[in-house]
Amino acid sequence: MTNTLIPELFRVCDANLNRLKEGIRVVEDIARYKENNKELSLQLKELRHLAKIDDMKLLLDGRDSVNDVLRKSTASEMKRETLQSIITANFKRAQESSRVLEEIYKLVDAELSENFKHIRYSLYALEKEFI
Description:
By secondary structure, this protein is mainly alpha-helical.
């Protein structure tokens, strides 16, 4: 990551990278441990490993999770009716986060932006397959 990305965006990227990887991990673990779906689990694991930034120090320097104004969970986040609703929520979380990263990295690194776009479209296909 170059220094042309303004420091305020480091925090945006850090939060969205975490959301992306966490969302994928939830679905991956359900596919692996509940569904025993090796193929889907491996595809999700591969995407999770593609979700990376070379210079994590810049992102960590921008992290301020203690003072996050929306740190507290919303009512909709605390209520899940079924396992399917958990799967759907986490696919959506990961897709939305990859879109944010795709857009932000258009400012400084087209290749990294394309990587997040690839992850997003792969998640769309895997969501359809899994559901």
